[in-house]
Amino acid sequence: MRHLLNPLDFSVEETGQLLDLADNIEHHLSEYSHVCDGKKLATLFYEPSTRTRLSFEAAMLNLGGSVLGFSSADSSSAAKGESVADTIRVISCYADICAMRHPKEGAPMVAAEKSLIPVINAGDGGHQHPTQTMTDLLTIRSLKGHLNNLTIGLCGDLKFGRTVHSLIEALSRYEGIRFLLISPPELRVPEYILEMLKQKNIPYTEVQSLDDAISELDILYMTRVQRERFFNEDDYIRMKDCYILDKAKMALAKEDMLVLHPLPRVNEISVEVDDDPRAAYFKQAQYGMYIRMALILTLLEIKVEV
């Protein structure tokens, strides 16, 4: 039995196999409609979620399985003080696999240590979001055709953005990757990420101007400034609109640059960009369901011949 707590839990080869399976699912969806008959997915979401929770549920339903769980801590025994360790021991009696989102970093790891079923980290605080990273990798590979020799710009909240941290770590394993890290000084990438890039000799540049950087990018990964990660409301208000991608900025970009965003967006991408063929963030959400279907099958060790 294995879990997915960090995108690096899967080797580059295993990640490639997962992406291949997701690609096969996309093109042969009906062939997978009963492969999880009788299997149950528990969705333990201690934080609000739209895409991640619903895409996990859609993934299991598309595989023929069923879903049980909760969508907020208030609707679970966590409101009474039950620990994550106790919750997962109980859930292990009812389900075959579990997806957990929690505001505290490391909570899914604690659950995995006590669980009798595979645990998938669906986001833990500002730490990691591995299934979003797998979604991002699938989106890039599907639309670009490869995962190497790319200049990636990450823009916005690079300090608290767990999707950013996970994606940098995952892409750092591929050749020819260069990062442009676009943020205000207060929201720059944590030092441990920068140290990792230095140790691997992966080129990166920290900049504050999106206008100056956008022409160099193959991928622009926009993020929202996350109100829920700020302790001071004034700091949030001051920084929430520091970057807004609009038509004028898109005119400076390459014709084949892709715009990704883990969503939800607030106003960091103007709605006028949505119709630009380079805007891939809604396709990205679709790919998220395919990769989660592939992950469920992989962790449950279900083989499908298509």
Key words describing this protein structure:
2 domains, 5-stranded parallel β-sheet, alpha/beta, 306 residues, Rossmann fold, 11 helices, 4-stranded parallel β-sheet
Provide structural commentary.
The chain has helices spanning 12-27, 51-62, 84-91, 107-114, 130-144, 162-171, 191-199, 210-213, 233-239, 247-250, 281-299; strands at 40-45, 66-70, 97-102, 119-124, 150-155, 177-182, 204-207, 219-222, 258-260. It has 306 residues and is of the alpha/beta class. It folds into 2 domains: 7-128 and 288-299, Aspartate/ornithine carbamoyltransferase (Rossmann fold, 3-Layer(aba) Sandwich); 130-285, Aspartate/ornithine carbamoyltransferase (Rossmann fold), CATH 3.40.50.1370. β6, α7 (191-199) and β7 (204-207) form a beta-alpha-beta unit.
Question: What is the chain-wise order of helices and strands?
Answer: HEHEHEHEHEHEHEHEHHEH
Mean pLDDT: 91
Q: What name goes with the CATH superfamily of the largest domain? A: Aspartate/ornithine carbamoyltransferase
Supply the CATH class of the largest domain.
Alpha Beta
> What class would the helix/strand composition place it in?
alpha/beta
The shape is globular
Domain module tally: 2
**Low-pLDDT segments, ≥5 res:** none
Share of residues in strands:
15-25%
CATH topology of the largest domain: Rossmann fold
Largest sheet: 5 strands, parallel
Number of helices: 11
Main sheet: strand order: 7-6-5-8-9
- How many β-strands, per DSSP? 9
Helix percentage range: 25-40%
Radius of gyration: 19 Å
